[in-house]
Amino acid sequence: MTDVLYAQTDQSGTSAINYLDPRTRLLTAVLTTVTLISIDSLVILTGALVFAAGITALAGLGAFSVVRRLVLLEGFVIVLLLVLPFTTTGEPLFELGPIVPSGEGLKLAAVIALKINTITLLNLALIGTLSPLQVGNALRLLRVPGNLVQLLLMSVRYISVLENEYARIRRAMKARAFVARSNVHTWRTFGWLVGMLLVRSFERSRRVSNAMRCRGFNGSFTFHSESQWKVLDSITLTLATVTSVCLIFRSYMT
Amino acid sequence: MAHIPEGILSEPVLIGGAVLGIAMLGYSLKRMPAESIPQTALLAAALFVSSLVSIPVGVSSVHLLLNGLMGIVLGIVAVPAILIALVLQAVFFGYGGLVVLGVNLVNLALPAVLCAIVIRPLIHNASPRKSFWLGLLAGGLGACMTGILLTSSIMLSDPNLIPAAKIILLTFVPLMAIEGVITGFTVGFIKRVAPELILPKEGRHV
């Protein structure tokens, strides 16, 4: 699952989204999300979904992987969508014995479904295409506290290492004929597995920390910034801000 | 990790969550010296990997939240560790989002901080056998509080969502049990193998 963290995202510039600075992409993602949350009109939301699909295509994400991620969206969204039409009070659409879906409930479910999908698409296109290093660097330039950015980058660095460690332990368990079932033995084994991962990561962290001190680590990383703010970024951000303000203003007026 | 996707919560809930989340983050970051970054990062990574493991329960399987365990192992620094796990999931997997991040952080980190302050010092002084029960308490409490916080943030957003939120809360009951049992075994294991991992109240890993 974590292979997404290390997947070679296309940074050669062949994908149009890479003309934008990572900061622009992060800020635009936040702006569009805030805007979409305030909208309740089905027409505008459908338009936004089409727009988001366009941006996703522009970002060069494969249709299959995008659809797979949308399908994987939280189980409880499905609960919400299935339950809402029947629990919201309003005009009944039709009666089928005790099952009486209301128009209002159906509309609410549609609004939520549209919002979730549009926002997820935009997030995948705008920031899902960034590498962890780019995100870290952009956050640093956006004045996010330095130790938080370092924590993020170091965690990302070691997730793959610890995943290998985990796979190694699982192989050892398999060699000893362990099969995961729903019983106390399995849960105890998994509890110890998590404990083992923590103990090993802690030992490793001591070695890493000592090695870093040997090399004169004084609590701050040196960043090599490759991103440059261009005119295109200013234009995109201005456009996004103006559109957002207009749409939010409109939804509070109606 | 249990997180609410973007697009469900109302503006007041989102703003409230963001303000509280930033306050908690600021407080805990002040208590994280630069020298402890490698330790915190590796433990956070280990817990992130652990939360991807699917655990069979009955006919289905669950992923653990591990926020109770995070509080016990990391102390107050669990707050940035949870934030990082959420950011990774939001940015790279598309689960959750950037605007709802504050609410999701509070829902997971508040129980973790409670475990860090109340249960961690108890485990520090306890025997391995007794630590199992304290770990069980921490794991169960973490999942239970997160379930309650998560459903109340949905309920506060829109009264129409109350019935659906109740169904979601029900799914937390088996999670609570399994979370408790596994955290109990993990804590008992750590107390036997590497007791120095669980520090007293004001301790931090350096």
TrEMBL record, chain A:
It comes from the Bacteria. The chain crosses the membrane at residues 29-58, 70-88, 108-133, 178-199, 235-253. The keyword Cell membrane applies. The keyword Transmembrane helix applies. It holds the Pfam family CbiQ. It is found in: Cell membrane. CDD domains: EcfT. It is a multi-pass membrane protein. InterPro entries: ABC/ECF_trnsptr_transmembrane (IPR003339), ECF_CbiQ (IPR012809), ECF_transporter_component (IPR051611). Keywords: Cell membrane, Membrane, Transmembrane, Transmembrane helix. NCBIfam families: ECF_T_CbiQ (TIGR02454). Belongs to the CbiQ family. This is Cobalt ECF transporter T component CbiQ. The gene is cbiQ.
UniProtKB/TrEMBL annotation, chain B:
Keywords: Cell membrane, Membrane, Transmembrane, Transmembrane helix, Transport. It is found in: Cell membrane. The chain crosses the membrane at residues 12-29, 41-65, 72-92, 98-119, 131-155, 167-190. The keyword Transport applies. It is a multi-pass membrane protein. Its main location: membrane. It holds the Pfam family CbiM. NCBIfam families: PRK06265.1-3, PRK06265.1-5. This is Cobalt transporter CbiM. It comes from Marinobacter azerbaijanicus. The gene is cbiM.
